[in-house]
Structure formats: C-alpha cells, structure tokens
Amino acid sequence: MYDKYSGRSRRFAFVVMKTVEDANTAIEKLNGTEVGGREIKINITEKPLSTVDFPLLQTEESQFVDSPHKVYVGNLAKTVTTDMLEKLFSEKGKVLGAKVSRVPGTSKSSGFGFVSFSSDEDVEASITSLNNTCYVDGHMDIH
C-alpha cells in the first residue's frame, strides 16, 4: 500500500489466498522472515467469505468486482487498459472484473493488474492459455 500524497510505501500489503489452509500455511512458513531487510508479520485480517454467502465486492474508484477466483497479471505494457485486459480474459472464461493498477495520484499504469472470475476452472483456463504470452508490446506473467 502506498501513501496517496507522497507515493511512499506505507510498509504493509494485502495478499488474497485461495483457501484458508493456504493462508495458514503462508503464516506458518513466512511469518517472521526477512524481506527487504525487515522482519515481516503475517496474519489473517478478516473472516474469509463462505462460498454460500459470497458477495460481489466493488471498489469505489474502479467498480472492480472482486472474487476469491482472481489472477494477478504482471509485466503489462503501459498502454494496456482495463477494458483491454477484460476483453482478452473474457475469451478464456466468465470475467467478473478486471483492473489495471495505477501509480497513486496519476493515471499511469503500474504495469500490473487483476482479473476476477466466477470459478476456479476459469482461473486455471486463463493461466494455462495466457501465461507468458505477448500482449501489445510486452509479455504477461499471470499468477
């Protein structure tokens, strides 16, 4: 997370894990390890959403529809837009939302984004068919 005025790191981040078990494993293996010369602390910040009462969450600024079925898309060309990302991934599955991250306080792309899907199968299909593919003038890394 970055300060919206200074652009400096606020020294914390959020990671969405696929399952509670994956989150607990990350805590066990990584809590207290050193990253960038600092010891990190890892914990669960909120009760995970159940699949039964799963709400579609939208961020205020971008109307991004969040989902537990989400991929990180890295190494994007600076010219890739949210609409372009959504259109490309829609060919591989039911896309709920797409978002290209922006440099805080600007409209410049940060070179990465997120795409949320309705199912794990759509996530796997997108990773299998699109990872390390060339899109516009760069290669995409999808995780």
Brief rundown of the structure:
This protein has helices at about 20-30, 80-90, 120-130; strands at about 35, 40, 55-60, 65, 70-75, 95-100, 110-115, 135, 140, 140.
**Side-by-side strand order of the widest sheet:** 6-7-5-10
| Count of all domains | 2
What is the CATH architecture term of the largest domain?
2-Layer Sandwich
Radius of gyration: 16 Å
CATH class of the largest domain: Alpha Beta
Write down the overall geometry.
globular
How many helical stretches?
3
The span between the termini is: 20 Å
Strand content: 25-35%
Please report the total strand number as a whole number.
Answer: 10
Mean pLDDT: 76
CATH superfamily of the largest domain: RRM (RNA recognition motif) domain
CATH fold-level label of the largest domain: Alpha-Beta Plaits
Organism: Fagus sylvatica
GO molecular function: mRNA binding; rRNA binding
Subcellular location: Plastid, Chloroplast
Keywords: Chloroplast, Plastid, Repeat, Ribonucleoprotein, Ribosomal protein, RNA-binding, rRNA-binding, Transit peptide
